[in-house]
Design brief:
303 residues; 3 domains; alpha/beta; disordered C terminus; 10 strands; Beta-Lactamase; 5-stranded parallel beta sheet; Rossmann fold; disordered N terminus; Arc Repressor Mutant, subunit A; 5-stranded antiparallel beta sheet
């Protein structure tokens, strides 16, 4: 039994004020396995996009009301739609129009009258590339990081979904498509920059350097929120030696193991632990280890 029929059909949104003239193209796309949606103008296209995210968009540049170029800018400004490739199809063939198409966020530009096989081939290529890029982007987010690409003018050229959420959560307004001011500081050097988020968490921004012509990659990672309430460990005022013993206890070591590691007898280890239990207000090794493990998971070390 073939699995092709079970695979989801890619969706393409065709936006044109005279869709009847594209009958041959739409029929060909259906035959190639696409589900074709139609919109007659920019506003209706945006309404459809509020309900479904297509794999690609074929967009007329000249339409009554909202132009194709302005429609594309609106699409690219939406985090949930920015990854969708937009291919312009229009009778405008002057260089200035082609440049405007790319400047507004289009990935390709075909001139009418359309050559259907060429349009289909271009659509296949851009749909495949977008899908591969999206998988790579999602893999980055799953790994716990966000990625931002910044162009030579300091504007955000691309950002992963997680990065977009974190940038919005910084609460520092950006200007003209640029980074929030507190995040943009990371562009001035290769070191790690840390800024605060509205939630109280910390956002680590690492400048990874140049990744293309005039583009810089920033790697974002959310750090744990800092608590204003002192932890029981902080209040316990453990000595440096007691802290070392507790740290190894939290890692599952026995008294004898800890003694061998720290160069002391297991009886001395036991004496240190008695003091630790008393200061922490616990009675068992398990309770002390649980407190220490929780602190380690938040801060990475005992202090």
């Amino acid at each position: 039994m073939s699995t092709n029929s079970e695979a989801p059909r890619p969706v393409v949104l065709v936006v044109d004020d005279a869709p009847s003239s594209l009958g041959m193209l739409c029929d060909c796309l259906e035959a190639e396995g696409y589900t074709v949606l139609i919109a007659r103008d920019g506003e209706s296209a945006l309404q459809r996009l509020a309900l479904v995210v297509p794999d690609a968009i074929l967009l007329d540049a000249v339409m009554p009301g909202l132009s194709g170029f302005d429609t594309c800018r609106r699409i690219k400004a939406d985090v949930g739609l920015a990854h969708v490739p937009v291919i312009f199809m229009t009778g405008l063939s002057e260089t200035q129009h082609v440049l405007e198409g790319f400047a507004s966020g289009g990935v390709d530009y075909v001139v009418k009258p359309l050559r259907t096989p060429e349009v289909v081939a271009r659509l296949h290529t851009h749909t495949r590339n977008a899908r591969i890029s999206r998988l790579a982007r999602d893999a980055v987010d799953v790994a716990g990081f966000g990625v931002v690409l910044v162009d030579a003018h300091g504007r955000v050229a691309w950002r992963s979904p997680q990065a977009a959420l974190w940038l919005a959560a910084v609460g520092d307004a950006s200007v003209d498509g640029g980074l929030p001011g507190s995040v943009a500081a990371a562009l001035s050097g290769a070191s790690v920059h840390v800024t605060s988020m509205l939630s109280g968490a910390q956002l680590s921004v690492r400048n990874m350097g140049s990744v293309g012509i005039g583009e810089t990659m920033l790697l974002l990672e959310q750090l744990q929120a800092r608590s204003d309430t002192p932890s029981r460990l902080a209040e316990a005022a453990l000595t440096p030696r007691e802290t070392e013993v507790l740290s190894w206890l939290a890692k599952g070591k026995t008294n004898r193991d800890i003694g061998d590691i720290l160069g002391m007898s297991h009886r001395t280890v036991n004496k240190h632990l008695e003091h630790v239990f008393e200061k922490l207000g616990v009675e068992t090794r398990a309770a002390a280890a649980a407190l220490a493990s929780g602190h380690l998971s938040r801060s990475g070390e005992l202090r």
